[in-house]
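seq as requested:
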Amino acid sequence: MDILVLFGSLTFFLTCSIPIGIALGLATALTLATTSDIPLILIAQNAFAALDSFPLLAIPFFMLAGSLMSYGGISRRLVALAEGLVGFITGGLAMVTVVACMFFAAISGSGPATVSAIGSFMIPAMHARRYDDAFAAALTAAAGSIGVIIPPSIPFVIFGVVSGASVGELFMAGIVPGIVIGCALMGVSYIIARKKGFAASAKEGPRKSLWASFKESVWALMVPVIILGGIYGGIFTPTEAAVVAVVYALLVGRFIYKELDFANLYAAFKDATLVNGATTFMIGLSMSFASYLAMEQIPLRIGEWFTSMATSPALVLLLINGLLLVVGCFVDNISSMIILTPILLPVVTRMGVDPVHFGLVMTVALATGFVTPPYGANLFVASAVSGVNMERISRNVFPFILAMIGCLLLFTYVPGVSMGLVQLLLR
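C-alpha cells:
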C-alpha cells in the first residue's frame, strides 16, 4: 500500500507539472500522513541533514567553475582547438562539436551547461556552412550528454554521496566511457555527413592552425589536468578540486584571456546561483524521499520483485537499464540518481556488481535521457540556442540515441571498459 501511495502520488504530481523537488516532498508527506506513524518533521530533518555534507559542496563550485569558463572565453578556445584537430574530416564541424563537448565536459560536469556553452558557437557555425539546423541542434544535444560522464561529473558526486562509493574512483571510471561515446557520436556524424554531403570545415588540413590553437587553449586544457591530477595525486579532495577550479577560472578568464569583465562575472555568478538554488532544494527533499525508502525497506521489496522477474543477472541488468532509460525520458538526471540509487544499488550488489561500475552504468543510462523526448533537458537547451522546434530536433536525434544505447550495453556487460583504469591505478 505504501509503495502504491508513494509512487502513485509522485507520478501524479509530476504529470501536473509540479517541480520535481516539491513533488518529492509532497509525495513523501502524503505517504507518511496516510500509511505510516512516522512524524512529518522527518522530511525537514532529513532534508537539512542531507545538505550538511562536505562532498555536496563540490556541486555549486563545479557549476560556478563551468559558468566562469564559459563567460571567460575558455569554451571558444576549446572549439578552435577541436577544429584544428578534426575540422578537415568530412562533416568536420560535426566532429568539432563532439570533440569540443568532450573538452568542455572535462571542465563543467554538467550536460545542459555543455550544450549551452558549445552550442552557442557551433550551431550558428554549422548553419553558416549549410548544415541542417535540426541535425546541428540534435548533435549538440547528444554530445552535451558527455558532460556528465567525463570527469568531473556532478551526477558522479551525487551517486558517491548517496551510495558511499568513492567519487575519485567514479571520476576515473568515466574517462574511457566518455571517450567511447564521443567516438560513437563522431562515427554517426560521419555517416550522416557523407550521406547528406556536409563539407569539411578546414580545407587546408589541420597542421597550419593546430599549433596556434593549442598554444591559445593551453590554459583551458590545464583545467582537467589540475583537477584530476590533484585528486588522484592526493593533493585535494573532489570538493577542494572544485574550489581550485573556480579560482583558476577566475584568474585565467580575468588576467590571461581578459574576457571575464565585471558584467560577465556578474552573469556567471547569477547563472550558477539560479541553477544551484533549484538543485540544492531538489537534493534536500530527494534525500528525505530516499530516507523514507530505506526505513520502510522499499528497495529490498522492489529488489525481490526484480529477482522474481528474472533470475539471470544479465537479464536483471537489462531490465534495470530499460527502467533507467524510461525514467530518463521524464525525470532529470540528478533527481533520478537520488531516487533510484537506494532502490537499485542493493539489487545489483547482491548479484556481485561493483558499486562504481553500476554508478557509471546508471549515469550513462540517465544521460541518454538528456536527449530522449519528451523531457530531454539537453533538447530544450539546444532548442533555445538554435531556435529549432523540439519536434524537428527529436526526429534527428534518434541515430545518436541508438549509438548511446549501444555504448550503454557495452559498458554494462563488459565492465573492463569502465573499471580497467580503476583497477589498474586506484586499487
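Confidence is low (pLDDT under 50) at residues 202-208.
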